């Protein structure tokens, strides 16, 4: 293929980008989006603060702009995210106990129901494990409602949209030897053993000098896949430039293609200037929308073999 999306599709996979609704009026941005990508993830528009700004009051205007653009252009949509400790609306931030549990489950149900049939995969729960060497859950108001909050969220999501793949999504879960990776692995293994509905694991894969691309990345992908779930690379970006950056993109793509259940890759933005990393250059297109060496390496890797 001659584009990322078409090349990935030839390998039975998708290639997506995180996008922002307010950039859909930028013709350079939309030109690249429509040419190269066959999946999108709303970067912020489906988060809790965006979709339920006041309790029980749901707003989907900006998320709908992205979903409608995707449908009109034949792109899949990854939903991001239904339950998260961050970007909670103010009313939720200070809630606790049964009231918070019920509010969280109602949020999952209402948002997943609203988009039923339109979402390829949902990040049902995002970033629930702590960094560091403990493998513990991250402390949060949601966690303090009880360890079973994650499975409760997945059951509610399955009931609301039985056709969507339900993912657990996290960062720093790329290195197979890290405690956080093992903790997520044990969660998924436990869910599969007990019949808790889960279909996929999202590896965000924000690579930078503090959390570099690990040489055992392919082992991580294949180990999760062996549990009977799909693996998706959900928020890929790689700090750096030039040939070094390009070769890391090439390795990530090759690793995904080597694992049958690695079903797709999403980059977390289109141009370097769209990245959440204010001063970095971690993406495939420069600020003018020109293809970087990282783009060429990614395309070549998608077409290899
Ligand atoms: O919308 C407000 C705007 O009204 C206000 O004037 C402005 C002033 O700062 O802030 C705007 O909100 C910002 C929002 O992005 C939309 O642009 C927030 O401050 C800012 O914190 C927020 O950052 C997002 C971040 O998640 C928040 O946690 C990034 O765009 C987004 O790329 C990033 O994405 C996360 C994934 O969801 C989860 N994994 C990690 C990834 C990178 O941090």
TrEMBL record:
It is an enzyme of class 3 (hydrolase). The keyword Signal applies. GO terms for molecular function: endo-1,4-beta-xylanase activity; polysaccharide binding. GO terms for biological process: xylan catabolic process. Keywords: Carbohydrate metabolism, Glycosidase, Hydrolase, Polysaccharide degradation, Signal, Xylan degradation. Residues 1-301 form the GH10 domain. It catalyses: Endohydrolysis of (1->4)-beta-D-xylosidic linkages in xylans. Its EC number is 3.2.1.8. The active site is at 235 (nucleophile). The keyword Cell wall biogenesis/degradation does not apply. Belongs to the glycosyl hydrolase 10 (cellulase F) family. This is Beta-xylanase. The chain holds residues 45 to 349 of 477 of the full protein.
